[in-house]
Amino acid sequence: MIMPELKHIRASYRVSVKGLIYEDGKLLFVRERSDTWDLPGGGLEHGEGIAEALRRECREELGAEIEIASAAPIIIPTWSKKFDTPVLIIAYQVRLVSPPTTTTDVSELRYIGVDELGQVELDSTLSAMMDQFYSQ
Length: 136
Description:
mainly beta; 4-stranded antiparallel β-sheet; globular
């Protein structure tokens, strides 16, 4: 029997896949329709595998094909101010098979070094975890 006061509580979180694309020690970031920068990637769709989602998101955001380069992901629980919900980020190091370009989803691409992070506004889900990505 479900207790009446608990039946409306739902446990939910957003799963997001991210691609870590390095060039000369810098990470590739994308700027979508906002002023914040994010790693290429996005939400996992129902029934979609993680690698499949990451490839789809990189095609949509970068217009590029990728290969997953790391055997194990970095998994980070965080919070999205945009969606006001918990987010589980699954990030893999990837290699570009074709060159990235701006798309209808992304207005700008930029490789950003760890020393430049204070000069850009990052998506709220990333700000506390950047050290983990640059230590790869």
